[in-house]
């Protein structure tokens, strides 16, 4: 595998050398594009091979990521201050992504309202959630077909608490969401059915309440959350049984 990678890199380096001497002689936009394309291809191969090698050396090592949600620094005083945690897990680079969403701070009167959550392009919170850019859209498609279009989440008791087993985003490969941001919106995602240009860009989901940057982590936070999830489910079942038999 390593030999193949080295071969690819040498091949690319050789072509780059020929190309760069041509560029010095007579730069053309076509040539620049070819160089750019080749660079992108080599980067893709590099990323894929290194991630595969990592997975092969630790066959049971799933990929994990964490995102600690904080209220946007530019939030006005009337908006709720949402905090919490989004955890991601992917059993292998090609496997589907799963996630736990655990958020609190929504106003109680908003129970059963729906809030949109997306992955945005930049992991830049210097201007609060406003500097996270548009939806992460590596393939230039319309909303709601972006990899981080996670949809709407129902608020219960001022809280969003959900496990999702199959999300379209990935923690591996050239379109990994690591280093990008998760944004929680004040409104509901119209899922592209709003009949206006913004609907197929961002779902008209309203102001950005809270956000975080997706970073790598070990298995521990996920294991803890999974345990808590089971316990909460059991408590809920027990209290329902008690109500039913009372
Ligand atoms: Cu968004
Ligand atoms: Zn989108």
TrEMBL record:
Domain Superoxide dismutase copper/zinc binding stretches = 82-214
> What is the UniProt remark on how the cofactor binds and its stoichiometry?
Binds 1 copper ion per subunit. Binds 1 zinc ion per subunit.
EC category name: oxidoreductase
E.C. numbers: 1.15.1.1
What cofactor requirement does the entry state?
A: Cu cation; Zn(2+)
Q: Which UniProt keywords apply?
A: Antioxidant, Copper, Disulfide bond, Glycoprotein, Golgi apparatus, Metal-binding, Oxidoreductase, Secreted, Signal, Zinc
- Membrane-crossing ranges are none
Q: Has UniProt tagged this entry with the keyword Glycoprotein? A: yes
What segment(s) does the record annotate as region Disordered? 222-246
Q: Does the keyword Secreted apply?
A: yes
One of the entry's Gene Ontology molecular-function terms is: superoxide dismutase activity
UniProt biased composition (Basic and acidic residues): 225-246
Among CDD domains, the record links this protein to:
Cu-Zn_Superoxide_Dismutase
Source species, domain of life: Eukaryota
Localization per Swiss-Prot or TrEMBL: Golgi apparatus, trans-Golgi network; Secreted, Extracellular space
GO terms for biological process? response to hypoxia
Q: Check the UniProt entry and state the signal peptide residues, or none.
A: 1-25
Cellular component per GO?
extracellular space; Golgi apparatus
Q: Which reaction does it catalyse?
A: 2 superoxide + 2 H(+) = H2O2 + O2
> Family assignment?
Belongs to the Cu-Zn superoxide dismutase family.
Q: What is the purpose of this protein?
A: Destroys radicals which are normally produced within the cells and which are toxic to biological systems.
Give the matching PANTHER family.
SUPEROXIDE DISMUTASE CU-ZN -RELATED
Q: What is this protein called?
A: Superoxide dismutase [Cu-Zn]
Q: Give the species.
A: Cavia porcellus (Guinea pig)
